[in-house]
Structure to design on (432 residues):
């Protein structure tokens, strides 16, 4: 009899053949070995096995016992897969990692096609992508194989949580469970992360949700892209180097022991959780978990080009004076004062003359009289600028049209030239 150890320093789960058979199995084998029987499935024990399985499956079945799980998998695949076929499996599946070519051997050469997936589960999207990329030749033309997603129920796992209200006063990290309105999904839960820094303005608030299990079968609407908001280093491991590789990411921080301290995010869109396995010849033990969000990360501003503001910070002219304050641009391209639009904004013009010519005067007199008065003042201003050189510019329009200032009735010492009988076309028209 084999000696069965009940305590071990390590327990191996790589195969059902690691340990010896239990006493109950050995006793059953010894009893079945007594006497002579008709071989090849015609013995009473084999018939009772088929009767039992037929009872379980509620139909007549034929059972073929095998000596190992590998033999069972390989023989089962050989009955369903032609030698030129594909076997779609998870990249970490037992038939791919542990069965040492047995599936390919017993199928006569069928190809194992590796797929990604969370927790060893193949997603419909991954399977569809792999199948749809396969091409066939029909009537001499290469055509892609059709999508299978049309026949697959739209369900999914929960990849991340966007926090709409962070709360306050949390002292420990609460567990987060998920319930859908259709009560179809199951298995998803996470751990809320909180800000534990007393000096932080968000102290005691939720900062993110770390998904511990994504679950499955949750109803989904139209699929949308998600992005990596943060990569949490749950365990940094040891022995890593900065040039060690992670599929879509870069290691941005390592301490003196080679423990990973920071992994930089990217701007790539995902439909499944990204792989965070570190490819390293020296490091081990790192556990990295992404936190996903539907909001695209704000990219770093590399260069700002201002095509609106002129040189020397002069935006334009308002009432004949230089203006370099805040401004906004209207849909018609007109610049106006103020960072945001209000009813009191002034129009910003490109030249002092244009700003004076188009200024809307105040007062109760008629438009025609106002326009003529402006033309006189504009001409007087132009003559003054050409004959005098001063450091200070005085706006004659402000002096003449300000309602809070008394207008000197004394005419100017140098009378302006006679204005035209009709306003010039560039000075606007009546009714403005």
């Amino acid at each position: 009899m084999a000696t069965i150890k009940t305590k071990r320093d390590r327990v191996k789960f790589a195969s059902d053949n690691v340990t010896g058979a239990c006493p109950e199995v050995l006793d059953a084998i010894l009893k079945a070995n007594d006497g002579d029987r008709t071989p090849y499935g015609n013995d009473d024990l084999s018939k009772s096995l088929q009767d039992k399985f037929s009872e379980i499956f509620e139909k007549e079945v034929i059972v073929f016992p095998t000596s190992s799980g590998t033999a069972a998998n390989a023989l089962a695949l050989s009955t369903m897969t032609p030698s030129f076929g594909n076997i779609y499996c998870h990249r970490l599946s037992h038939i791919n990692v542990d069965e040492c070519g047995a599936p390919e051997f017993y199928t006569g050469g069928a190809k194992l096609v590796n797929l990604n997936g969370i927790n060893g589960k193949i997603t419909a999207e991954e399977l569809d992508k792999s199948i749809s990329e396969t091409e066939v030749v029909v009537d001499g033309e290469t055509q892609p194989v059709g999508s299978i997603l049309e026949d697959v129920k739209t369900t999914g796992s929960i990849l991340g949580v966007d926090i709409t209200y962070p709360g306050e006063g949390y002292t420990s990290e609460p567990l987060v469970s998920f319930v859908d309105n259709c009560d179809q999904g199951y298995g998803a839960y996470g751990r809320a992360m909180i800000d534990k820094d007393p000096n932080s303005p968000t102290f005691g608030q939720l900062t993110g949700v770390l998904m511990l299990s994504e679950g499955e079968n949750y109803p989904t609407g139209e699929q949308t892209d998600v992005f990596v908001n943060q990569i949490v280093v749950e365990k940094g491991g040891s022995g890593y180097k900065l040039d060690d590789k992670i599929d879509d990411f870069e290691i941005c921080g390592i301490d003196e022991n080679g423990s990973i301290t920071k992994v930089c995010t990217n701007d790539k869109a995902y439909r499944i959780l990204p792989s965070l396995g570190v490819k390293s010849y020296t490091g081990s033990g790192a556990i990295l978990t992404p936190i996903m969000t539907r909001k695209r990360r704000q990219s770093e501003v590399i260069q700002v080009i201002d095509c609106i503001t002129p040189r020397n910070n002069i935006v334009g002219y308002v009432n004949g004076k230089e203006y370099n304050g805040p401004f906004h641009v209207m849909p018609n391209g007109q610049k106006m004062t103020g960072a945001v639009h209000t009813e009191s904004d002034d129009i910003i013009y490109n030249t002092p003359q244009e700003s004076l010519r188009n200024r809307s005067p105040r007062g109760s007199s008629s438009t025609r009289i106002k326009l003529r008065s402006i033309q006189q003042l504009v001409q007087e201003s132009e003559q003054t600028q050409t004959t005098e050189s001063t450091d200070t510019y005085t706006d004659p329009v402000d002096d003449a049209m300000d309602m809070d200032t008394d207008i000197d009735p004394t005419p100017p010492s140098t009378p302006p030239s006679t204005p035209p009988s009709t306003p010039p076309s560039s000075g606007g028209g009546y009714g403005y």
